[in-house]
Amino acid sequence: MIITGTLVAPGDKVLDSIGNYRMGNGLYEANRRIFASVAGYVKVYGHKDKSDNLVQVIEVRRSEDQLENELLPYDGAVVTAKVMAVGLRYRHFFILYLRDHSRFAKCDIISIGDRVYKKRFSALLPKKKLRPLEPELSEPFKNFVRPNDYILAKVCDDAGIKDKFVLSIAEDELGVVLCRGKFGETMKKVDWNTVVSTRTGKTEPRKMARVPQKCMLPSDLKDSTS
Amino acid sequence: MSEPEPDAAENAELTKKKIIIMRKRVEEVMRNGAALVRESNGLPKSGADFELYNSYPTFNSFMKKSEERLNALMAKVTKSIGCAMRVPDVGASVEHYTECVIEAQDNIAERVSTLHEVLKKAELDQIVKVPEFITKAAPTNRKTEAEISAAMKTFSANIGTVLAQKFREQREEAAQIVVLEKPQKTYSIGADNSAAPFASKLTVKHHAIEKRTGITLIDDDESGKRDWNRAETETEEEHPYIAEILHFKVPKDQMTPAEPIKFKKLDETTLTMVDTKEKLEALRDVLNNVKEFAVDLEHNDMRSYLGLSCLIQISTRDEDFIIDPFPIWDEIGILNDPFANPTILKVLHGSDNDVLWLQRDFGVHIVNLFDTYVAMKKLKFPKFNLAYLVSRFADVILDKQYQLADWRARPLSKAMINYAREDTHYLLYCYDMLREQLLKQNEQDLASMYSECTDVCVRVYKKPVFNPKGYMTEIKLRFALNSRQDYVLTNLYRWRDTVARAEDESPQFVLPNTMLLNISESLPRDIGSIYGCCNPLPLFVKKRVGDILKIVVQARDVKLEKIERTTKEKSDAQEARGVMNDSMDHITSILKSKIDFSHTKFDEERGEIEIDKTVEGNDTLLKDQQASLLSVLQGSAVPNSESMIVVEEGKSKNVKKVTKLLKELDKFVTPYECYQMMLITKQKQEEEERKEAEKKKLEEGDKPKTLFSHHDASVNRKPEFDSKLLNVDNVRVDPAEVKEQEEASVEADKEPPVFDPSRFSDDQLMSKKAMKRKRDAARRNIDVSIVFGESSSSDSKKKKTGDEEKEVEEFDYDKTDSSAFHNPVRDDNEEFDPFHQKFRVKRSKKNNSTKKSSNRQGSINYKK
């Protein structure tokens, strides 16, 4: 039997032949033998394939958590992103209407989980993914997110968009975590749907993430520490 | 020092003289040219002038003669320059002539430029070799060999095209060697292509050891029978020399190191072509007296079912022999004497097939074999082919272009003979070198190598057995077959084999795999489309196209179904092809490359990949601690955050500041951390809620459920029928039907049946047609009831209709306003037509009563 949980390094032989197992991640085959391609722990788990047969998949993982194994934003990952622009696409078509008919908000993924990358991944937040199972709005983004907001979002799979990561904030826990006003001042949460400017006292609608409001902008940090 | 100066002066004088002579000559040529032009101007111009002169026969004949002379002269001139020109026929058009002249001039210019280049090189003290300008009949588009060789030497930029041209020429040359008649026919070499097992051709068993009869089974009753059985099996399975090979001990001198004997040069060794019985006997005597000789075979398997040995090359230390086996086919068996002699060493390269071919065609068996291929594998050479071996040891590069030539061709060309001879000529020297290297490496290796060679010797030739499902493994199917295609494929595959056996051709020659697949894929309807599937058309497809058509037509009667192959069949086929497709996944597909042989069983560069099947069973993690990278990983520990601080050179660490900064950083909460906190609190909440719900449940106990939702499991309840509901149903149905039903219900009251149709509405019970019939009957009944005024039912609707009838009867016409009838009928559907009879009549009437109103009415109507 395979000793699950054994530590292997890249190039270590894991199996002499694949046998009844299915190859998972972190393995490669050469000369009919199975080698580890990453450093990690050997793991065997049951997996149901398309025809509903239970197959044993063997894998080398860095840790139990999926977040640790994936490098790129994967389906279902919770990411922190910055809204760069709203309605870049199609804007010039609707300039006469004066209303915002944009379908996407362009975002940059700053961090996946807790890991921050040197480069940002560009992503899209379509208007369909703003709230769960509700009819589309005429001015979708106005009440949810605005440019330069920091949001918590989930990466999700979208059949229509293949070239970019697609984000969704259609959950209570997801939404805006940090936002700034017109003059760069911080906006404070009033309730889960509104924020107020600390400088002008103007209220703006936002979809706030229902998380403890503990993250602060650098400027506020200075204030609190001093 | 003083000597070269007068030489140089002389040289200068000489060149001066030469230049003067050249100038004079050029001037002469120019003068002659000018005279020529002048003279030619005196000739009659083309057109009417020329026509007139041409009518005189003397002029005509003179012109013809002069044209011939000019032709000859031109040919002579171009030939003398070295670029012969194809002179057009006498009487050709002027354009043709000019074309030829221009071509010739181009050639001359080219030649001049090449010569010029060569001379330039000569000035730079390089080797001068004026390229020989060989022109065959005339300069054509094809470049001459000399040009190619010149291009090869100068390494022109497009060397690829030059090489391609060379190859094409060689192929053309090879194509010219055509075997007009099969040698099997000319020399009447019979082959037994039947399915019967192979019978050994061995006539005289040389060097036989006496069988020891000491160990025999003593069985009184059936001993005779047993012996007979064994005798039969010996012919088809057992090797005739099995005892000799198993008792073979490698002679001592083969196991001891000795100085390698250098091969003689090709020119110095005598080559004997052996094609008569006398020569063959002489060869046998020669071979019997040497200690070792090298052997190689040339084989052709395209134009015969079993294959045909075409040439046997044998080399001793001093001589080369090439046996042409066709004229002395049956006599070659006498060579078995030296071949089976255990004291004489036979050296072969890649002997797996050669051993079998010798057995099959001539009944020659080998005892004491040294296979250089096996030895090379033992020594772990980078390559294992003969060319590499010879180039490594003998420093001779073999030209392998004739490897796949048609060796049945007679007479053999000089190049082919040379190739065949080189195959064995250097082999003995290579053997010496290999032996020395093996002995140097390990003495055990040489012994094990000999044991491997004996394994090769023990192999017995077996005829190929036809496998009706062989196409699964032999042919790579590129599409999923349906039943018809499968039928055609199976039958064509069988047909191909039978034809090949009957005609003594290889199955591939009868119908190549690709064409076989083409036909079975497209299922052609007629002969023309069968021909269309095969390009170029094989001989036997053309001859026996009727058979193929028959099979294809029969296939059309087969029921069309999709054929599912079992996974075992698939994997077997893949295994046979040496491909492991099932284990192909994302990573291997990336890693797979065309020059990577790891996914196949055999690698021509590295030989067979050794996979020890004994280890395959247990899935233990076999890790070599030293080879693994783990030791490195374990050695490195995660450094402390403080030790990671980089400080500018010359400045000391400000620990306080750093710790403060770290603390501040710790204070900062990332959004993701907030999210995680939220998740934890949510989980806690949910748990609490669940606990509360459980508590509630416990408190409330098991109460019967009162509220149901669609989430609940479906409960089987008995159908309940409300009598009122049934009545409501009846209201809508016609009275006669109601009557019927009532009657039925009365009956039901009398004796309750098991199945009560009255409980269900008609449309639940009856078919559509029956319903229609019933409705029709009901309608008829209604008529009857109205006529008789039957109102037996207590139906409210029926009562209502009765009331209405009464009201209609009591209608008083006097009370109603008759003015409405004076107005014209407004028919929306009908368009207004002023000339319509109806309107005219109305108009005249209205004219009588009120003119104005009628006019207005008409206008309104018009508008409408």
Automatic annotation (TrEMBL), chain A:
Its main location: nucleus. Keywords: Exosome. One of its GO terms (biological process) is RNA processing. The keyword Cell membrane does not apply. InterPro entries: Csl4, Exosome_cplx_N_dom, NA-bd_OB-fold. One of its GO terms (cellular component) is nucleolus. It comes from the Eukaryota. Pfam families: ECR1_N. Residues 7-44 form the Exosome complex component N-terminal domain. It is found in: Nucleus, Nucleolus. This is CBN-EXOS-1 protein. It comes from Caenorhabditis brenneri. The lineage of its organism: Eukaryota, Metazoa, Ecdysozoa, Nematoda, Chromadorea. The gene is Cbn-exos-1.
TrEMBL record, chain B:
One of its GO terms (cellular component) is nucleolus. InterPro entries: 3'-5'_exonuclease_dom, Exosome-assoc_fac_Rrp6_N, HRDC-like_sf, HRDC_dom, HRDC_dom_sf, RNaseH-like_sf, RNaseH_sf, Rrp6-like. Residues 837-849 have a biased composition (Basic residues). Residues 684-714, 733-864 are annotated as: Disordered. Keywords: Exonuclease, Exosome, Hydrolase, Nuclease, Nucleus, rRNA processing. The keyword Nucleus applies. Residues 482-562 form the HRDC domain. Its main location: nucleus. SUPFAM superfamilies: HRDC-like, Ribonuclease H-like. Residues 733-766 have a biased composition (Basic and acidic residues). GO terms for biological process: apoptotic cell clearance; apoptotic DNA fragmentation; exonucleolytic trimming to generate mature 3'-end of 5.8S rRNA from tricistronic rRNA transcript (SSU-rRNA, 5.8S rRNA, LSU-rRNA); histone mRNA catabolic process; nuclear polyadenylation-dependent antisense transcript catabolic process; nuclear polyadenylation-dependent CUT catabolic process; nuclear polyadenylation-dependent rRNA catabolic process; nuclear polyadenylation-dependent snoRNA catabolic process. It holds the Pfam family HRDC. GO terms for molecular function: 3'-5'-RNA exonuclease activity; nucleotide binding; single-stranded RNA binding. It is found in: Nucleus. Belongs to the exosome component 10/RRP6 family. This is Exosome complex component 10 homolog.
